[in-house]
Amino acid sequence: MNPDALTDQLELFLDVLETGSFSAAARRHPLTPSAVARRIDALERAMGSSLFNRTTHAVRVTPAGLAFAERARRILAELHLARAEAVSLSSAPEGLIRIDAPSPFGRRHLAPAIAEFLRANPGLDVQLRLIDSFIDLQGEHLGEVDIVVRIGPLPDSRLVATPLASMTRIVCASPEYLRRRGIPRSPLELEQHDGLDWDSLAPPYAWRFEVDGKLQLCKPKRLRQTSNNAETLLFSALAGLGVAHLPTWMSSEHLQRGELIPLFCEQGLPAIEPVSIYALRLEREASPRTRLLLSFLKQRFGFPPPWDQALQASLAIPQQ
């Protein structure tokens, strides 16, 4: 299989994984839903394993498909890097890319990714500004910067948004807190626990759970700490002060190490939120250097992102 065909096949597989539908994936390619199904069938035969379970309503990834997705992203990232390196020797884009991003996500995930991107693109430079202000992430600085990374609902439909990664939120607490206060077995029991919460503009899907077929707000009655910064809530959860509802991009490593215990995850990770992690820009047509970076970040993060893949794998191991 030539590199272009391999890239197309892997990107099609990842689009089916992201959308959960042959029809939705087909709309991203010049294909019909039946053609998408045939290509996925061929990929499964080549792999010797079922990558998706099909029903009349949805296409759901299998454990083998989830494991393959991680490899597929790595292969695509390597292909993109190889091409970027080859182009950099001739006519690669040059110049400065200016980025604003939220500090916690930038430190944990964006900065390492950009360092890798810059190694592969010696003609490009990046100005990465990590900021804490929620207002600054509305896109008001676009024009001064090329890209604003935003987590949550889109602020303005006039902005062009590129989804970079899915968002999942998980209820968690420290082992010490749970030994002291007990483990809630249902979101309805959260009311009896101490909580760590946002003090003003909470994320739209925080503390919302499907109970008896309905989405309900279930949260602790007593709040030991409130803050406008999720990283502050993480530190307090690690200190055993209460229960928090944190994004997995922030809490995954602590959950994998056992410093925090996931709650209500008997069936695996909770469903992803309707909102995503986005890169916002003003121009409908991005510059070549910006397109190159966006393509790299989409492959580096993706749906599901690497922090969720690692966490899902750890949840599959029975807890002692």
TrEMBL record:
Pfam families: HTH_1, LysR_substrate. PROSITE patterns: HTH_LYSR (PS50931). Keywords: DNA-binding, Transcription, Transcription regulation. InterPro entries: LysR-type_TF_proteobact-type, LysR_HTH_N, LysR_subst-bd, WH-like_DNA-bd_sf, WH_DNA-bd_sf. GO terms for molecular function: DNA binding; DNA-binding transcription factor activity. Residues 1-62 form the HTH lysR-type domain. SUPFAM superfamilies: Periplasmic binding protein-like II, Winged helix' DNA-binding domain. Belongs to the LysR transcriptional regulatory family. This is Transcriptional regulator, LysR family.
